[in-house]
Amino acid sequence: MFSHQLVKEANPILEAIFDHPFVKGIGDGHVDDAALKFYVQQDFQYLSEFIKIYASIIPILKDRENMKFFAENIDFILNSEIHPHHVFCDIANVTYESLQHATPSPKAYLYQSHMYRAVRTGSLANIICALLPCPWTYNEIAKQLTATGKNTADNPFKSWIDFYLTDDEDADGGLTQKLFKMLNELSKDMSEEEINEAKGFFLKSTELEWEFWEQAFYQQDWRFTEIIHGGDNHE
Ligand SMILES: Cc1ncc(CN)c(N)n1
User: What are its E.C. numbers (predicted)?
Assistant: First the structure.
């Protein structure tokens, strides 16, 4: 099955994500405030683009059930996925509102551009493959942290882990299963070339998930940040 192929090939990247110091820090209950703040700034911005990409799928869908599914996921990001951000903000002792005006860092910019590139192909399989590592890797992180005994009552990140652990229909766990199922259906009518193209989108997004943790952990912004951010202000 296509989904098994994707998970198998991406597995070394997923293992590297589990080993990332930011993710390990969530498990151990300590991540530097600067990394948490950088993460929330970038993720607020990233999820806003993610919403737009979900919305861009709707015109190429054929049935109402799938339209409802993507519309509900937009609602989930807007109204529920603010919770994990609040967890990070509370731990870093900073207001959420103060972190909502960032411009994308180089790696976040690359990740967003990658997703828009998938949208431009017009292929539903490519778009789902580019989007899926977002809910998939977080659900896997939550499961791995729980399985290794890190999701304890005294871990300040417990409610972050619990949020991504749930397999509820509309949360990342349920979403992941539904998207993998859609891909398996779509792949039945795809050529080998189309399969490989879609797989490329999935694997690159998975690596960009690793990069997202990395850039937040080391606060990797634009080298000429004053010039770049100044430029954004003049748009
Ligand atoms: C970059 C990123 N990837 C995944 C998730 C989890 N939906 C997130 N909030 N941000």
Answer: 3.5.99.2
pLDDT digits (tens, 9 = 90+) for 148-191: 999 999 999 999 999 999 866 666 667 899 999 999 999 999 99
Q: What pLDDT shows up at residue 116?
A: 96
Residue nearest to atom 8 of ligand 1 (CA): 134
Tens of pLDDT, residues 89-98: 999 999 999 9
Other Cβ atoms less than 10 A from the Cβ of 154: the count is 6
- The residue whose CA is least distant from atom 7 of ligand 1 is 135
ipTM score here? 0.99
Shortest-distance Cα residue to atom 9 of ligand 1: 43
Enumerate residues 6+ apart whose C-beta is below 8 A from 123.
Answer: 194, 197, 198
10 Å Cβ neighbour count for 98? Answer: 11
Residues in CB range of 221: below 8 A, 6 or more apart: 105, 106
Asked if residues 174 and 168 have their Cβ atoms less than 8 Å apart, the reply is yes
- The rounded distance, in Å, linking the Cα atoms of 142 and 173 is 10
Q: Rounded distance, CA 140 to CA 119, Å?
A: 25
Q: Is the separation of the CB atoms in 42 and 105 below 8 Å?
A: yes
Tell me which residues of the chain have a pLDDT lower than 70. Answer: 167-173, 231-235
**Fold of the 2-92+103-222 domain:** Heme Oxygenase; Chain A (1.20.910)
Q: Cα–Cα distances in Å, from 186 out to 24, 117, 212? A: 35, 19, 29
